[in-house]
Amino acid sequence: MNLANLLRIAWQALRRNITRSVLTMLGIIIGVGAVITSMAIGAGAQAAVLAQIESLGANLVVVIPGAISSGGVSLGTGSRTTLQLPDIAAIAQTVPDVAGAAPYSQTSAQVVAGGSNWYTAVGGTSPSYTTVRSWSVAQGRFFSQAEVDQRAKVAVLGNTVEQNLFPDGGAVGSTVVVKNVPFKVIGVLAPKGQSGFGRDQDDIVLVPITTLLDRLTGQTWVQTIFVSADTPEAVPSVVDATERLLRLRHHLTVAQPDDFTIRNIADVQQVRLATSQTQALLLAGIAVVSLVVGGIGIMNIMLVSVTERTREIGLRMAVGARGRDILLQFLVEALTLASLGGLIGIAIGVGTAQGSSALGHWPVIVSPFSILLGFVSSMLVGVIFGFYPAQRAAALDPIVALRYE
Amino acid sequence: MTGASQQLAPAGPRPSHPANGEPMIDVRDLTKVYGEGLTAVHALGGVNLVVRSGEFVAIMGPSGSGKSTFMHLLGCLDRPTSGSYRLAGQEVSRLGGDELALVRNRRIGFVFQSFNLLPRTTAQENVELPLLYAGVPREARVRRAQELLEQVGLGDRRDHRPSELSGGQQQRVAIARAMANGAPLLMADEPTGNLDSASSVEIMTLFRRLNRDQGITVVLVTHDANVAAWSERVVTFKDGLIIDDRPSAEAVAPAVREGALRAASSGEARV
Predict the structure, then answer these.
(1) Which ipTM value was assigned to this complex?
(2) pTM greater than 0.90 (yes/no)
């Protein structure tokens, strides 16, 4: 009995009772569908997290001021004014494996250009910012260290700001006014898209940090320091060295806590990555349970089918079927049932993943591996749960089977 | 395992079988015991029987006489507890399950009281079944099944399912199936038990024709003297032993026999 004949017999048997076949397949359909969907959503979420790390700048370490605590009242992280511009230069010069360090302070303001205006974030930083944030300039240039030192009134526009203020182009060379201070536009940043939290990162105007502090905010301290390590492996040592350097520079004794907080972006993203992996694992667990339940359903129906067709089995044996012919017949039937369910499950899983992506704006990635996994696991379920009923069929005594009522 | 290594003759449309008069069935001291110890049931207690090729034998006896058990042993559906059974010269009493399946496939055709056709499967596919297990290629299978259905007068019912056929027609499909691999031995278990008398005559006529025209050995189990009357020899069982074995002319009452012969001649005129 060759495979083509076995498949034909299995197909005929399954077609005889379509409703029952479909209901039997349901468990496998749901299981495989869940495998495909969960893997697609999991992979999509991971890719999104990795893309966030990319967009934030790889190997990024963020230093923010600590909290003021006086008389038992804490004003919260970032309320201290201890981070100074010289700290940044010191980090860049003395901490090993540092690719760059850039200050960053931000205010919000109405930016006016000729007839149009736009309310946006105005950030002050240094030329290292482009390195640290892996952010390039699309038109014109970024400001230089000399311009920072001179408190030059120059600005680099984010893509969104440029689109709104200069819809017809020609931003570079024109003038924008921020809080009554005219700035010459020297460049436009390349688009960077949304941050991990949905904020439009391109809705920004960048000016030299010195200019921002002196002319726009009047602050003397820096809100944030971005430090970029040379390699991902160097991030922990950069964090340590930065902490030691800042403690030294801020004259903190051993007993005093840090007056700043260092955040390692990669760590934050790792946590989020782990969370998304946990979710994917949970979904995969549900999928496995569903596959097992589906398998039990197949076994159940195959046992019923073997009992119902006892006389058929006896007759087949009487006309020359060997035990193994009967075993194969029922095994192939279970396998066909399971893999058919697997194929439908794959279709539904891919559909659900794409649908939820379209409706919920989630990133999904349907990998060929997940499809293969779904199909192989459905076949496996068919073989494992189809074997016992098939074996029972093959072990029947032809005489008893022929007489069965 | 005396016969385990013996090879069966290759299956052909008409396999070579022993010349007329050679033993087709040669049974010596055949016993069958079900269960063990005190509860053991001796279904057959040492049966000897020789059926020559081309014979038409009826096996009779009351229920519980052991005739069904004997039939199962002759049909290679079961193995004897002891004794020897040579089928067309081959010792088959100690063969394994797969070898018995092969013997059933190539050497024996079965016809049952309840037809045992696969439901929701066409007459054509039912007849193809033994050919499928014999590994006959599809085209040859289809051709052979068509041929057989024409032989039993159902050439125009190939695509009908059992539920669309009368009892007599279903039994004819079963007979076509039994002959599919050119088996030299046809075994029938109450083949007319579920049929009206007209269909019975039809079926018995077919058996007689196969026996006379093609030299097929026919062994049928029945408790109906009208059916036994069609045979040439009647073997009677009682309590697991053969108690009578004689030509049907002697075994069956003359009136019954004449009725069967009349039916036979008119039946043959019709078929």
Answers:
(1) 0.86
(2) no
